[in-house]
Amino acid sequence: MRKTLAALAVASLALAGGLAVPAHAEGERFVFVSHAPDSDSWWNTIKNALKVASSQMGVTVEYRTPPTGDLADMARIVEQATASNPAGIISTIADFNVLKGPLTKAIEQGIPVITVNSGTIEQSKEIGALLHVGQPEKDAGFAAGERAKAAGVKKFLCVNHYITNPASVERCQGFAEALGVDLGNQMIDTGLDPSEVKNKVSAYLRANPETDGIIALGPNSAEPTIAALKENGMAGQVFFGTFDLSAGISAAIKDGTIEFAIDQQPYLQGYLPVVLLTNHARYGVIPPNAINSGPGFITKDNIALVEKLAGEYR
To answer: Quick check: 190 and 200 in contact, CB under 8 A?
Structure first.
């Protein structure tokens, strides 16, 4: 009993970031399946979190992702992970219709699943996952839109670099709803190529000069948008918010180009599921409800606290 209580105490301290010693070195293996293409650097924070959590808990975590972000490939990766019979699977729900089947089959095979990042709490429950760790995306978009509305924004552009992910559309929809307008053609599909993003943003702003607000959905869309605004002389002249953080976004917040960045705290999306699955495997304990990792807002007022951690812990 004393050993069990001590192990639980160690695990609890690890959750709080207070100790880096695993409860037991039992070597469980987990698989983390992401929808992100290899080129998406935003996921480096989650990869770092997996490394930290695996070291602290004495487990192995395999990070797998479709190289180009193809969701059919992601579904096959989930199936392959299931066939390897890991102690648990951590997966995004980038497309519920595509991933529901493979994730449900994993659960039916007796593999615990925690969903993270994209998807909703309701979708996670329908799949049968233990819980969801992430940011309610439409709510986050709505919160961003409320800030834009308070600043007087009437016409906006949502720069969507990953339009095939329904969660990205929810962000844009939430933003539009907070403003009390239809999304319509105010969302553009830019793709991931930085030059294409920049060119499409510039073209949209030329064709829609009444645009007074921009919301980007992450570094892949925000950083080329920064370049477009600086090139056409609109930097600091248009209300501009973004999701997520990077060194480029941090600099733009400090110089006034970007009003805020929405922080969904991706470190928690990587770290917590590994710790939770390890405790579930060893002791049968798991929180009963989903965990919201965001949204939080990063502005000039608090950027100094987080900018040096961007890409690693923030």
So the answer is: yes
For residue 52, what are its two tokens?
């930290």
- Report how far residue 209's alpha carbon sits from residue 47's, in angstroms, rounded to the nearest whole number: 40
d(CA 150, CA 148): 5
Express each pLDDT in 36-88 by its tens digit. 988 888 899 999 999 999 999 999 999 999 999 999 999 999 999 999 999 99
Q: How far apart are CA 21 and CA 11, in angstroms?
A: 9
Give the pair of three-digit tokens for residue 128: 């049968």
Q: Specify which residues 187 forms β-bridges with.
A: 158
Query: For the sheet containing 187-189, what is the strand order?
Result: 187-189, 156-160, 213-216, 239-243, 260-263, 296-298
What is the spatial distance between Cα 75 and Cα 33, in angstroms, rounded to a whole number?
9
For residue 93, the 8-state DSSP code is -
Separation CA 158–CA 204 (nearest Å): 11
Phi-psi domain of 4 (left: phi exceeds 0; alpha: psi -120 through 50; beta: other): alpha
The DSSP code for 28 is -
CA distance 59 to 28: 5
DSSP-based three-state secondary structure for 113? strand
pTM beyond 0.85: the answer is no
Pairing of strands 296-298, 260-263: antiparallel
**Which among 69, 121, 74, 63 is positioned nearest to 101, based on CA atoms?**
74
* End-to-end Cα, the chain, rounded Å: 38
Query: Count of CB atoms within 10 A of residue 83's CB?
Result: 10
Q: Which of these, 119, 49, 57, lies nearest to 87 by C-alpha position? A: 57
Check residue 267 and report its DSSP letter: H
Q: What distance in Å separates the CA atoms of residue 195 and residue 184, rounded to the nearest whole number?
A: 24
